[in-house]
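Hello forum,

I keep getting stuck at the same step: I have a sequence, I want structure tokens, and every attempt I make locally crashes halfway through. Rather than fight my setup again tonight, could one of you with a working pipeline run this one for me? It's a single chain of 256 residues.
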Amino acid sequence: MNINQVAVQLYTCRDLLKTPADIAATLEKIRAIGYTAVQVSGMGPIAEEELVKILDGEGLVCCATHEPGDKIINEPQKIVERLQKLKCKITAYPYPGGIDFNSEEKINELIKGLDAAGKVLAKAGQILCYHNHNIEFRKINGKIILDKIYEETNKKYLQGEPDTFWVQSGGGNVVDYCKKLKKRLPILHLKDYRINDKNQPEFCEIGAGNLDFKKIIAAAESAGCQWYAVEQDSCPGDPLDSITQSFQYIQENLVS
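Reply #2:
Ran it on my machine without issues. Output:
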């Protein structure tokens, strides 16, 4: 992994991205930290053309996005058009909101929808990924749901965006999932995991938690990963301070 493959998931900074002026100011600060790429998510309304102008002006690229799950499933052509405007090839289905994970029928419907939407994106030269939380580590008829999703979709149409925190939280092994997704892993969410003084799991800066990122990065590289997106769902203070700490740790300890 080289440092130019490290992006920041903008959901981390969502409270600083409410207006176009906020977005411009925050992206300037993100570039000053050293990041050269972002994953677009969690920001207020802004035209794609204006966002691209800001990104280009700062020397940032949009390596990926998250888009609303319903829109991905029901209006994939609109996702294609948005990604084209953003000069971006990768997006991810962010969360199975409204899907009854107690029902195998509903899970099967989701799988078919992901496969169909991914086919539309693939025909446009784009990639649809699946972003997991811990809910997908539940089992249905003895099968881990995340494994079922990957096994029952065409790898040409659905690829992986594993989230290191949520894999750990679900009881999975991050390294194993990177290996399972060999040649199907264009982007990985880097998110550290630790237990706080209340004996509860919590998000933290890269290097401040328990995950073995050297092994994780090595496995992801072997799987062909292109992008490593730093994300922290909640931060103890200013999210810019947290993503700075994460970037510095990655630069000093994980890049080759």
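The chain has a mean pLDDT of 98. If your local run keeps crashing, start a new thread with the error log.
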